[in-house]
């Protein structure tokens, strides 16, 4: 398709997955560039998946210094390590070995201070444990790029996970019986999606959606880092929930106390959920880059308590 | 985040992982991160290049080494304070007996074949240890929980059986490319390079024509002073030309079918493809005999290309020549191996020439290899997700959190908005011969069938026993084991050749046999019913077992449902068996027996048996659409 053939080495290594998504998809993957920011357990799982899949390059961004807590769900680095290197560099050293055909790089600095021209270099940008403000900002910069940059935001709290996807105007082909059919999906930005009035949302929408939004707003109002919460915050957060539910005309029962409490208290990552969310996210990025398969639109939720992995569509026109 | 109770259950658990492949690597990592301290891993396999795209604990430099051991070392580098015990061994080894299994709090399967899964299921039942079972193909996967007396066992429901084809479809009337592959691999390749003494239906048709039998005997022999090129052309003309002519002479076969076209080497324009840019001196990439390649010599580079008839004919002749010239020592002992480049080339070419003859579309080497090697599609992401789900269930099992056990399906397309769909587990099937004590019935001609037939076709093939013992009342008829006296062994060997009714303790209609596997600690009773005649086509075993869950045989993508029936609908001879050494993660089929509903964990309008049924089948799989209805989906 793109005129270039896979090398013998690539064909041998990727044999089993070429049988899943085909040579064209593999070729597109090997020419793609992915950026990941915020290397918690879920993001590390994602990095592993996308490197194994054989993207062209993966750029890591996380300047934090390692700590016991930070490495609890990280299988790349010995939890007992003491190092002056930032997390991204330590992860990079390990990830490089996973697939010699993928370039793994480190980008230092605060992503939200970077311009559109920086994001333009990538086909997909993934942000993990990112503040509300930064999510909106980075999402907007991806949207302003001259070519389409897929944007993903992922958050895990307690044994729950959330993925947000923005593929902007996305066209892909889908096999219907024996012929290929062209499909088109219009995605809202993160800002547009969360602006959809709660009242107009379907009644059976995952309660996680509301709980995540309430905590996100709490963190941004109180200058907390994402995930920097505890059970002690519950009274304040429940007040905030009351306010938000009143403004949005939503019954407070849609945002149960027990759920809010779980999400606030569960700050230590749960590795099985990291694997599941990192797996779904990996699959989605592979779909978007290869243009094969139905991508999810536009939120995904998993809760280990009930075991469901649910797709929710929150778009302004989707009333 | 885990609670303190969960954490203490995790820390105190001793876990057995069976399989360190696609699911196993992910599972070991997630167990270690989740705080498990004592993990044992059994895997008999060594690492291959095609594993590296998803078995992330392994590197190029590990190729050829034990998966269990390398996986352990890789995890200890990042979590040095946990105990991981690897066993580079087959889980069916007698060392892994019931006492061994009893030591574990839970057993987690990441296996690649039905046989081993059944074996582990029995040991878990006998040892009273909970089992979390799993499987993936491509984007699909599932996790199930099996706790004795609480949920169904792995064998309570029928499992997909290897796909099989009627002999005559393969030998005479192929209609799909896979039929040509089976012919090329199981008949032609086996005839030319395999054990000469094995029965082979390659010439089944030509025996009809009188006087040609002598010709048939000779044709596959390479005569002493015969030129190798001439020999190849002779074989070519015989199998693609002469045999087709013979088949055509049987006019009845072609009344409702398109007639095949005999192909002779003289009719194929071979000159077109001679030595384009190939290097005749370069027969293999390395010195490794497994990389000797006809393609390389002929300058054919891309395994994704579909070759025409002329190219296939060249590859056929070249590959045949290379086998006789470069790998002469192996001839007579070869069996098809998907990692044997020359074998794959030969089978691809032969299947394509046959396909051309029958008007079937030709395929690339890459595609042919997938079909011939029964290679299952595999990606890292699905394995990671499934491993996460296994650990979630394992933690519930450790806490005896029965009411929250779930089996979970990982879907490619959402069903009722779900990509991960939890379902409440089933109760044990009361008529399961494995986990309940339901007797079986066997119709057999006790005056003609030998004990050997019973052992091979029923006890081993159908009941999946590894080290069986057969008793009639208190009389031992047959037993396997290392510690047997010589005279007993002689006795049993003699019994094997005896007709049932003539055994020292005669087996006739009304006899109840007790069949036991001491390693699996499984016992079942078989009621014998004498029957004179069996239909050769429909009942090729010459015996019919009932009260046993018949594997589901999938045909053209339709899931045939289990009907508690007999062996009678497995009219087959040639089967596409999974390669044992590959990472085939087979999925158990989910078909609820009549009258029993599978409940979703929440209120739903889901019809009981309309759950996703996932079969290990590269052609078509039954999946759910948005409304929960089963529909066929074609997979590329």
UniProtKB/TrEMBL annotation, chain A:
UniProt keyword annotations, A-Z: Acetylation, Ligase, Nucleus, Ubl conjugation pathway
Pathway(s) of this molecule: Protein modification; protein sumoylation
Residue ranges constituting the THIF-type NAD/FAD binding fold domain according to the UniProt record: 14-308
Subunit relationships: Heterodimer of SAE1A or SAE1B and SAE2. The complex binds SUMO proteins via SAE2.
Highest taxon of source: Eukaryota
Family: Belongs to the ubiquitin-activating E1 family.
Localization per record: Nucleus
PANTHER family linked: SUMO-ACTIVATING ENZYME SUBUNIT 1 (PTHR10953:SF162), UBIQUITIN-ACTIVATING ENZYME E1 (PTHR10953)
InterPro entries registered for this protein in UniProt: ThiF/MoeB/HesA, ThiF_NAD_FAD-bd, Ubiquitin-activating_enz
This protein's GO CC annotations: cytoplasm; SUMO activating enzyme complex
Name of the protein described by the UniProt record: Ubiquitin-like 1-activating enzyme E1A
GO terms classed as biological process: protein sumoylation
GO molecular function: SUMO activating enzyme activity
TrEMBL record, chain B:
CDD domains from the UniProt entry: Uba2_SUMO (cd01489)
InterPro entries: ThiF/MoeB/HesA, ThiF_NAD_FAD-bd, UAE_UbL_dom, Ub-E1_IAD_1, Ub_act_enz_dom_a_sf, Uba2, UBA_E1_SCCH, Ubiquitin-activating_enz
One term of GO molecular function: metal ion binding
Domain of life: Eukaryota
Pfam families, alphabetized: ThiF, UAE_UbL, UBA_E1_SCCH
Positions that bind Zn(2+): 153, 156, 432, 435
Keywords: ATP-binding, Metal-binding, Nucleotide-binding, Nucleus, Transferase, Ubl conjugation pathway, Zinc
One cellular-component annotation, GO: cytoplasm
Residue span, Ubiquitin-activating enzyme SCCH domain: 328-369
Residues covered by the THIF-type NAD/FAD binding fold domain: 3-433
Classification via SUPFAM superfamilies: Activating enzymes of the ubiquitin-like proteins
Annotated metabolic or biological route of this protein: Protein modification; protein sumoylation
Record field: compositional bias (Polar residues): 563-574
Residues binding ATP, per UniProt: 19-24, 43, 51-54, 67, 112-117
Primary site of residence: nucleus
GO biological process: protein sumoylation
Subcellular location: Nucleus
Coiled-coil stretches noted in the UniProt entry, renumbered to this chain: none
Positions annotated as active site in the UniProt record: 168 (glycyl thioester intermediate)
Domain Ubiquitin/SUMO-activating enzyme ubiquitin-like: 442-534
Keyword Protein biosynthesis annotated: no
Family recorded in the similarity comment: Belongs to the ubiquitin-activating E1 family.
Quaternary structure, from the entry: Heterodimer.
Protein name: SUMO-activating enzyme subunit
Species annotation: Oldenlandia corymbosa var. corymbosa
């Amino acid at each position: 398709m793109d005129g270039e053939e896979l090398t013998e080495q690539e064909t041998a290594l990727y044999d089993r997955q070429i049988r899943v998504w085909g040579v064209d998809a593999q070729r597109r993957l090997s020419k793609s560039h992915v950026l990941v920011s915020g290397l918690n357990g879920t993001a590390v799982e994602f990095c592993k998946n996308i490197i194994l899949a054989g993207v062209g390059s993966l750029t890591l961004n996380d300047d934090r210094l390692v700590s016991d807590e930070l490495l609890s769900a990280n299988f790349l680095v010995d939890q007992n390590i003491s190092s002056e290197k930032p997390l991204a560099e330590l992860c990079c050293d390990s990830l490089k070995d996973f697939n010699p055909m993928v370039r793994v790089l480190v980008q230092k600095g605060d992503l939200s201070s970077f311009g559109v021209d920086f994001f333009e270099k990538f086909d997909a940008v993934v942000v993990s444990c990112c503040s509300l403000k930064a999510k909106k900002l980075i999402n907007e910069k991806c949207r302003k790029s001259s070519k389409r940059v897929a944007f993903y935001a992922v958050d895990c709290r307690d044994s729950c996970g959330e993925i947000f996807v923005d593929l902007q105007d996305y066209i892909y082909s889908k096999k219907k019986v024996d012929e290929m059919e062209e499909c088109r999906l219009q995605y809202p930005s993160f800002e547009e999606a969360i602006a959809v009035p709660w009242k107009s949302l379907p009644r059976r929408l995952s309660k996680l959606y509301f709980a995540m939004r309430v905590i996100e707003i709490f963190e941004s109002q109180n200058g907390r880092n994402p995930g920097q919460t505890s059970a002690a915050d519950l009274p304040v957060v429940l007040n905030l929930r009351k306010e938000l539910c009143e403004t949005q005309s939503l019954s407070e029962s849609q945002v149960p106390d027990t759920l809010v409490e779980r999400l606030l208290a569960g700050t230590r990552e749960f590795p099985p959920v990291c694997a599941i969310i990192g797996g779904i996210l990996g699959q989605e990025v592979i779909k978007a880059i290869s243009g094969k398969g139905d991508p999810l639109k536009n939120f995904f939720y998993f809760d280990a308590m009930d075991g469901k992995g649910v797709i929710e569509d929150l778009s302004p026109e989707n009333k | 985040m885990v609670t303190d109770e969960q954490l203490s259950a995790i820390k105190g658990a001793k876990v057995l992982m069976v399989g360190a492949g696609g699911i196993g690597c992910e599972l070991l990592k997630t167990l270690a991160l989740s705080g498990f301290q004592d993990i044992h891993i059994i895997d008999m396999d060594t690492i291959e290049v095609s594993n590296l795209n998803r078995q992330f604990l392994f590197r190029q430099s590990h190729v050829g080494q034990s998966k269990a051991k390398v996986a352990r070392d890789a995890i200890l580098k990042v979590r040095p304070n946990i105990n991981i015990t690897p066993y580079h061994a087959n889980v069916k080894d007698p060392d892994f007996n019931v006492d061994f299994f009893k030591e574990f709090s839970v057993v987690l399967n990441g296996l690649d074949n039905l046989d081993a899964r059944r074996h582990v299921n029995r040991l878990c039942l006998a040892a009273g240890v909970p089992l979390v079972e799993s499987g993936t193909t491509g984007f699909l996967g599932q996790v199930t929980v099996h706790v004795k007396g609480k949920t169904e066992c792995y064998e309570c429901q029928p499992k997909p059986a290897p796909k099989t084809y009627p002999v005559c479809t393969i030998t005479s009337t192929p209609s799909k490319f896979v039929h040509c592959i089976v012919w090329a691999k199981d008949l032609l390749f086996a005839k030319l390079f395999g054990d000469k003494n094995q029965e082979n239906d390659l010439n089944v048709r030509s025996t009809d024509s009188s006087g040609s039998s002598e010709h048939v005997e000779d044709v596959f022999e390479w005569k002493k002073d015969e030129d190798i090129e001439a020999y190849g052309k002779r074989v070519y003309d015989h199998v693609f030309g002469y045999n087709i002519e013979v088949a055509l002479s049987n006019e009845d076969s072609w009344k409702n079918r398109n007639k095949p076209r005999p192909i002779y080497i003289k009719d194929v324009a071979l000159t077109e493809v001679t030595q384009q840019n190939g290097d005749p001196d370069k027969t293999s990439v390395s010195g490794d005999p497994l990389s000797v390649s006809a393609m390389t010599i002929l300058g054919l580079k891309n395994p994704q290309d579909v070759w025409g008839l002329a190219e296939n004919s060249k590859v056929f002749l070249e590959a045949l020549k290379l086998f006789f010239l470069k790998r002469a020592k192996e001839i007579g002992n070869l069996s098809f191996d998907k990692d044997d480049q020359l074998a794959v080339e030969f089978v691809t070419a032969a299947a394509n020439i046959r396909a051309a003859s029958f008007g079937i579309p030709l395929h690339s080497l890459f595609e042919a290899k997938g079909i011939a090697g029964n290679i299952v599609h595999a990606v890292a992401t699905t394995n990671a997700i499934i491993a996460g789900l296994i650990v979630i269930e394992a933690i519930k099992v450790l806490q005896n959190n029965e009411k929250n056990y779930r089996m979970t399906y990982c879907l490619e397309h959402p069903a009722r908005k779900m990509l991960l769909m939890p379902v409440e587990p089933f109760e044990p099937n009361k008529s399961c011969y494995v986990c309940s004590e339901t007797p079986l019935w066997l119709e057999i001609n006790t005056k003609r069938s030998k004990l050997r037939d019973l052992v091979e076709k029923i006890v081993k093939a159908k009941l999946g026993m590894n080290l069986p013992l057969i008793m009639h009342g208190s009389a031992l008829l047959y037993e396997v084991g290392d510690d047997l006296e010589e005279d007993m062994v002689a006795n049993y060997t003699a019994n094997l050749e005896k007709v049932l009714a003539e055994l020292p303790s005669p087996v006739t209609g009304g006899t109840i046999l007790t069949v036991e596997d001491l390693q699996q600690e499984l016992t079942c009773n078989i009621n014998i019913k004498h029957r004179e005649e069996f239909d050769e086509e429909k009942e090729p075993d010459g015996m019919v077992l009932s009260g046993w869950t018949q594997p589901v045989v999938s045909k053209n993508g339709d899931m045939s449902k289990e009907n508690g029936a007999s062996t009678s609908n497995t009219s087959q001879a040639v089967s596409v068996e999974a390669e044992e050494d590959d990472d085939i993660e087979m999925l158990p089929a989910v078909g609820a027996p009549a009258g029993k509903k599978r409940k979703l964990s929440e209120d739903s309008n889901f019809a009981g048996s309309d759950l996703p049924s996932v079969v290990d089948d590269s052609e078509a799989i039954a999946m759910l659409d948005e409304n929960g209805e089963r529909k066929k989906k074609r997979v590329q």
